[in-house]
Design goal:
CATH superfamily of the largest domain: Reverse transcriptase/Diguanylate cyclase domain
Distance between the termini: 44 Å
Order of helices and strands: EHEEHHEHEEHHEHEHHHHHEHEEHEH
CATH class of the largest domain: Alpha Beta
Helix content: 40-55%
CATH architecture of the largest domain: 2-Layer Sandwich
Strand order of the largest sheet: 5-6-1-7-8
Number of helices: 15
Structural class: alpha+beta
CATH topology of the largest domain: Alpha-Beta Plaits
Radius of gyration: 24 Å
Length: about 425
């Protein structure tokens, strides 16, 4: 059952990337704006509220967004700037609670249970936080407050744009009942269709169903979604979640079939992953190569099949050259046999064990490479990634931006 004394806030910036652009570029204010790639394969990373009136949404193909809003203005975006603003945002969050769960660059859960006892009513804390963000960042943020995480997130969405909604413990059930099934965590389009076939159309329909019927028709999953539908969620705000893998990927503006053209991108991705591993003092046992075929096999954006190949290393590594060599070996040994539209390099099997089996030969070379990596990291932290070179812009046309927080990434790089 939910704990009525628990107070959880969900803070979510409003059209974060687009709001930052409009804040810093007055000529864009009031304009329908999309941040992302404008190419035929571009994807909208964020849409201003002026654009949303035309049905433009994040993750929408840019071609569709332009069709819905012919006057839509595209900007490429500036991830370095967005990460810096995110860092400022989370500094504010931590002043209101020591327990902050980062969901993305612009979104977090805050456990206000202790804060509310010490600093006053939760709703007032939410208003104060919104005021601070507006004063210090000149950006809007919407806030939801509830005794459980799912309801807090739904409340912040209902408060948009630039609002606050608190759902008290006694009101949770009534708040949830009229909402569509899709608002329950874990229910996607397929699951929603299945539930509707069984006669469940609103969250209240699931909440009122008896557990025996749900378990008979849906198994244990039915019991879990019924608990959520009734506002029963014991999940805590988690301030830290261990990373299971590190990766970088890139979607091309045009398909690539020549494997030699992919090698520079593999090296760049490998160096980026290695740098993040070193920042976190981790090393990886396994290198993963990922690609998405250019040959469509189904409808929609998911109609392009994705493949992965991996190799396990004799010793864990945080060296970009080692990662790239193994990824390139995978490329030629068992990689794509045709044109591809996306390529990624990743590492998994992470360890913070710094002990190595000393090599019989090459100890000097290993020490030299370690020194080189440390030097590159220092240069990157001081001058940014561009200081050590990157692929030509024509090979790096941006098709979209991610809100995902990359663990180990330097916000200033």
């Amino acid at each position: 059952m939910k704990d009525p004394t628990r107070v959880i806030m969900h803070a979510d910036m409003d059209a974060f990337y687009a709001s930052v652009e409009q804040r810093d570029r007055p000529e864009l204010r009031g304009q329908p704006l999309a941040v992302g790639g404008a190419s035929t394969r571009g994807v909208v990373a964020a849409a201003s509220y002026e654009a949303r009136r035309f049905g433009v949404r994040s993750a929408m193909p840019s071609v569709e967004a332009k069709r819905r809003c012919p006057d839509l203005v595209f900007v490429r975006g500036n991830m370095t700037l967005y990460k810096k603003e995110s860092a400022r945002l989370f500094e504010i969050f931590t002043e209101y609670s020591p327990v902050v769960e980062r969901i993305s660059l612009d979104e977090a859960f805050l456990d206000l249970t202790g804060s509310a006892r010490l600093m006053g009513p939760a709703k007032q804390l939410g208003q104060n936080l919104r005021k601070r963000v507006r004063e210090e960042l000149s950006l809007p943020v919407s806030v939801g407050i509830a005794p459980i995480k799912m309801v807090a997130k739904i409340a912040s969405a209902a408060a948009k744009p630039d609002g606050l909604l608190e759902v008290l413990a006694n009101d949770v059930r009534g708040f949830l009942e009229p909402l569509p099934l899709s608002r329950i965590w874990g229910i996607g389009p397929v699951a929603q269709e299945r539930l509707q076939e069984l006669g469940f159309h609103k969250i209240g329909d699931v909440a009122r169903a008896d557990d025996h019927t749900l378990q008979h028709t849906l198994g244990d999953w039915g019991i879990e979604i019924a608990k959520l539908a009734r506002g029963e969620d014991i999940r805590d705000v988690e301030p830290y979640r261990e990373a299971l893998s590190y990766s970088e990927e890139h979607t091309f503006s045009q398909d690539i079939s020549d494997k030699h053209e992919l090698e520079p991108l593999i090296r760049e991705h490998a160096e980026s992953v290695a740098r993040r591993l070193r920042n976190e003092r981790l090393r990886a046992h396994t290198v993963v190569l990922k690609w998405k075929s250019a040959r469509r096999t189904g409808p929609g954006v998911r109609g392009y099949p994705v493949f992965t190949r991996r190799t396990t290393l004799a010793q864990p590594t945080d060296d970009g050259r080692t990662i790239s060599q193994n990824a390139i070996d995978l490329l030629y040994r068992c990689g794509p046999d045709g044109a591809i539209r996306l390529l990624g390099v990743g590492c998994t099997g992470l360890t913070n064990d710094s002990t190595d089996q000393l090599p019989l030969f090459g100890a000097h070379e290993k020490a030299r490479q370690t020194t080189l990596n440390q030097t590159v990291d220092q240069i990157t932290r001081r001058f940014g990634k561009k200081a050590i070179g990157e692929l030509a812009r024509k090979d790096r046309e941006q098709v979209g931006l991610s809100m995902q927080v990359k663990r180990g990434d330097d916000p200033d790089a």
